[in-house]
Design a protein that fits this description.
Elements lengths: L1 H40 L5 H24 L7 H4 L4 H36 L13 H33 L1
Helix pairs in contact: 1-2, 1-5, 2-5, 4-5
Pfam family, one: DctQ
Keywords: Cell inner membrane, Cell membrane, Membrane, Transmembrane, Transmembrane helix, Transport
Organism: Methyloversatilis universalis (strain ATCC BAA-1314 / DSM 25237 / JCM 13912 / CCUG 52030 / FAM5)
Length: 168
């Protein structure tokens, strides 16, 4: 169990590192939005800048999901778990992670990887004039769900360790 807890701590650090970088993507997206809005006043807007904005916002959303889960800032249905004992809450968390989060994440990984790979191998570019390559935006989907999967596994390990501790 100690090795799994060490691995869980590494996953936590990975998601924390991503989470600390992502606010900068929002700042960059806001600055791009302002710059693009000003440029359009002078008929100098750019489709590439518009696409870069949504790439940055997508990165913040997708790559930050694991950190949100780690910090327990996600949507929860405490109405059901509030009545449970601490041990019951641990079991409910493990069940919820194993039966909802992990299957959805694994399905999204399975579906999004070929989508990214196809885009990357074909050098797919946005249909907009002056648009950006699409693969950087598409890799965000499997990367984000991979981080979320890892964090869900780390939480399951932690909850299982807490259950074992409660039994001892």
């Amino acid at each position: 169990m100690r090795a799994l807890l060490t691995l869980a701590a590494l996953i936590d650090r990975l998601n924390e590192a991503c989470g600390r970088l992502l606010p900068w993507t929002i700042l960059a997206a806001v600055l791009l939005a302002v710059g693009n809005a000003l440029a359009r006043k002078f008929d100098a807007g750019s489709n590439a800048l518009l696409e870069a904005q949504w790439y940055l916002v997508s990165a913040a959303f997708l790559l930050g999901a694991g950190r949100v889960l780690r910090l327990d800032e996600h949507v929860r249905i405490d109405l059901l778990t509030a009545r449970l004992s601490p041990r019951g809450r641990l079991k409910a968390d493990i069940a919820a992670l194993a039966l909802t989060v992990l299957p959805v994440c694994l399905l999204m990984l399975w579906l999004s990887w070929p989508w990214f790979l196809s885009s990357w191998l074909s050098h797919e570019v946005s249909a907009s004039a002056g648009g950006l390559p699409l693969w950087p935006a598409r890799i965000l989907v499997p990367a984000g769900f991979a981080l979320l999967t890892l964090q869900a596994l780390a939480l399951i390990v932690r909850r299982a360790a807490a259950l074992r501790e409660a039994d001892a």
